[in-house]
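WARN retry 2 of 3 for item q-0093 after timeout on previous attempt; input resubmitted unchanged.
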Amino acid sequence: MDNMDTLKAEIDEQAKVLKELDEKRQAALQKLQALEQKYQDATGEPAPSKAARDTTDKDKGGKKGKKGKDKKAAAAGAAGKDQPKKDAQGKGKKGKAAGKGKKGSESEGTGKEMFSFPGEEENILKFWNEKDAFQLSMKFSASKPNVEKFVFFDGPPFATGLPHYGHLLAGTIKDVVTRYAHMRGYHVPRRFGWDCHGLPVEYEIDKEYGIKGPDDVMKMGIATYNDACRAIVMRYSEEWRRTVSRLGRWIDFDNDYKTMYPWFMESVWYVFKQIFDKNLVYRGYKVMPFSTALSTPLSNFEASQDMRDVDDPAVTIAFKQVDGDASFLAWTTTPWTLPSNLALCVHPEFEYVKFRDEKRGENFIALKGRLFGPGGLYTEEQKEDVTILESYKGADLKDMRYEPLFPYFADRKDKAFRVLVDTYVTDDSGTGIVHNAPGHGEDDFRVCTAAGVVTTEDLVCPVDHTGKYTKDVPEMEGMYVKDADKVIIKRMKEEGKLFASARIRHAYPHCWRSGTPLLYLTLPSWFIRVTELNEKLLKNNKSTYWVPNNIRDGRFHKWLENARDWAISRNRYWGTPLPLWVSDDGEEVVCVGSIEELQELSGRDDITDLHRQYVDEVTIPSKQGKGVLRRVSEVFDCWFESGSMPYAQQHYPFEHKEDFEQNFPADFIAEGIDQTRGWFYTLLVIGTCLFDKAPWKNLIVNGLVLASDGRKMSKRLKNYPDPNLVLHEDGADALRLYLITSPAVRAENLRFERKGVQGLIREVFLPWLNAFRFFEQQADRLKASSGQPFLFDDTAKCNTDNPTDRWILAFVQELLEFIHAEMQAYRLYTVVPRLLKFVDNLTNWYVRLNRKRLKGAEGDEDAAIALWALGEVLMTMAKFMAPFTPFFAEWMYQHMKPYIKVSPEAEAQLRTIDGVREDESVHFNLVPDPKPFYEDHSVVRAFEVLKRTIDGGRVLRERNKMPVKYPAMELVVVSTTENVLEDLQSLQTYVTSELNIRKLTLSSDESAYKVKLKAQPDFKTLGSRLKSDIKKVAAAVRQLTHDQLTEYQSTQTIELCGHTLTGTDLVLSYEYAGDDNKYAAQADGDILVLLDVLEYPELVDEGIAREVVSRVQKMRQAAGLSPTDPITVTHKLQGGKKTDDLERVLGSHQSYIAEALSCTFQPASDEADASAVIATEALKIKGASLQVTIFKA
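OK item q-0093 returned
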């Protein structure tokens, strides 16, 4: 903790220094402005320093504008009106972007020039549209000889709402995978689809026209109602197209499929007929979740889509025995079902008791285990008020009778109002006695029909399709059942039948479309026998590959294990009608599988549309002498339609039969985790019914996108940024990269943070852009120097002996190998972290290590080799990043093309379609394979060691306040791992130059350098675990010896104060234990770095000289000068505690300073020309003040 106090003190000290500097700067600025005014008053012209500052303010410290540059005409094939906007020289436009004031999220500055990533994306979008690039890419791939198809099925969204982040996430995943497959040589058809039928559309019409139930629809007319639905189906289709295209997703909107197309509906009929002919369809009565807002039953998986915590009444009702002196106690959270009660149910093996409530003076029967304690009928303190009279097994209560609660169905006394037994009764809540209303509960219905209380022809369900009581309950006829709870409870209390009443908070299903509570009603419906398919479904699921696979084997597997028969019919209007024609007695059923078949059976030839208004009146003559057959009134559950899309989108089997059968199942699908009970499920059920196959091979399931606070994104709460705003201000590439890096690609929830999107601009796109800018500048410098434009052949080998060239080229090959392996496994989320490492390697290591070399410090020939290596990397990067960041990859490709030398042989092999060559877009190219001649695992390994060593040295310099510009005497690296020291020996010049050290010592003997391990507990993790023992354990940790910690480092476990510490519970570090305080130590795994931290006068002097150079260079940059602008620099000492030291350094290192600045550096003279002054500044250097003035040469 002492270290933390010291750190805090240092932070406070630095904050104080900054504040003082700000105050001094403000004072200096005011003084300077006064002097400038005097100068202007005396000369009539602005002071040079003011002009320099004005330019700096305007250009934000950038460099001077570039002079015109022309490219070789043959190499500038990318230039012209058909390419993303460029200047006359083939370079990208770099004018100021229209910033939005969002922390620079749209416009990113690199020196003087401003670059707008979203703005350039808009230019790329125009380029693609002008070229019709997506369709061209499809033509290029389709025309390849023997090309293989990569089959993708796209789940159809509804266009009645706008796209949200969930759609953008799934769309990005789909686009990355399909673009990658295309760029690996496959032909990848991609069609957009629309879910047009069903509740989302009908609900909007019901709201618009005030429709409350079926009667309102019939008054309006089915044809008029369906026409109204058709009119709004594509309400937001243009917004969808615009947003999806702006995201960079390539998919065919023009050749789409819609579930309302007659040809699509015909294939749905065909699919259903195949299932019907296999005897997998039946009509039955079941208790089903029912939406009263939409007047239709829902499937079980739809009922689970919107579970909400609600407060409901929880009542315990007394049912009086007919032949006895007690009442059965039953508990329910749905009092509205009590008028439909026909039985009670107990568990045959549980122990029940008859007891007397002494205060009430009444006898009751309930489960013994539910009498007392938490949630029981009585508290422990009330035990003395209860006397147990008798004990029974549940089976002993069978067929005991009780009096009906209500008179409505009292005429059923001969079969109803008795105790039944079944093992579904539980002992963890209620009274152990369940009230059975067979019209409203699945188990109730099953138990009561088995006991003969009711039959499917003789049901009790006095609730209509709007959720109101029918005339069977006259006192409450027309009342919404949920509103009747209070009325029923009041009546039970008045009649002495209410034993207890409370409120309970529990999860209750709601209609996923209207948000209204679902009711459970016993209804007739058409079902698919899913339970008969369970084993096949589980087998077929196992044959598929999921990312992540635990969803396949966990959530989805469990859902399939417990899957029930699927209710596929809906009592609605706007949908694909069930193709079932039935006789009046229900005995003769004909299933129609096509329009042609219906025409033949009905004798009509005018049937072209299959919606209800066109087929409801069509009849089929009976073949059994039963008159005419009429179509049943129901339509398909829209999930059946979307589950049929693999077949219906191709109008199978009526068209494209051979093509479909050769390319089924799909290679890839992707949707959100909510589709485990939706689209994934229906696809699997229908595919299993038809072909005993899963319709997909590979599947990515994504998690949900939540607001940053972890709550659901809400328009009302405004707790998330508008997706179009993010696309407009931050760009699609950054958003795409953010989404596919997130936990959501592993089926976990993502808390959307816009700053995460903007962070990737800084971490990936700006460094990538700056690497190109530096390449571009040095290519232009080389052209100016040699008189020839710089070109390289990216199909040939860059023959270089430079270790950094060999390393970055080899690293790219390993990265390509990694990308191909991970994409083949559909692990998108692993690619971006490796990409970030690559960007760091490229910009913070390769470019920095070679900056002088690229500028020609080692000759133009060597600079050209370095430029080739860098250009090879940038062009390869544009290609392998194209599926992930399609916009900036295209921008980079177009700007790198002018530097590529294409051989006549390669030129001749380029194909042209519709007047466009296949090298005109990066997306017409292939993601390259690794080039064997660049592969070198040993050099990649060596540079990893180098980087770790240099990073360790930097940490030690920072910790000991030793700026890199001040040389250090020695760095020692200790390691016993094979190859580490040899690798460093081969790269030692980079270690010494990067860390500015005089001597590098390599050793395998740790003991020779007097270092020892020390440890401190990880207070963050151990504090909550050890609680009050943490202080005792911390003290024990401080007493651990080097040998004990070495053993911990090896075994990763140690016992302290009765606690087992493992892994990262202890934070280990090294310290130098010598008496001379010579070294500071830093370890990184198997590498120990020691830095000589003693101060040597000659090294301090050199560091001061370096600091002078650094400060003058900053003045030069602030004045808007380029390194080649001719200047003269003068200096004048102005006092300070260490003036003598600075004066000595200026004398002894004058030639070094002048050489580093590439200009004369001399003492100030009174004869200097004031009009030639560009900038002047008083520099504080090592306790002395030095006035430096820059003149025009």
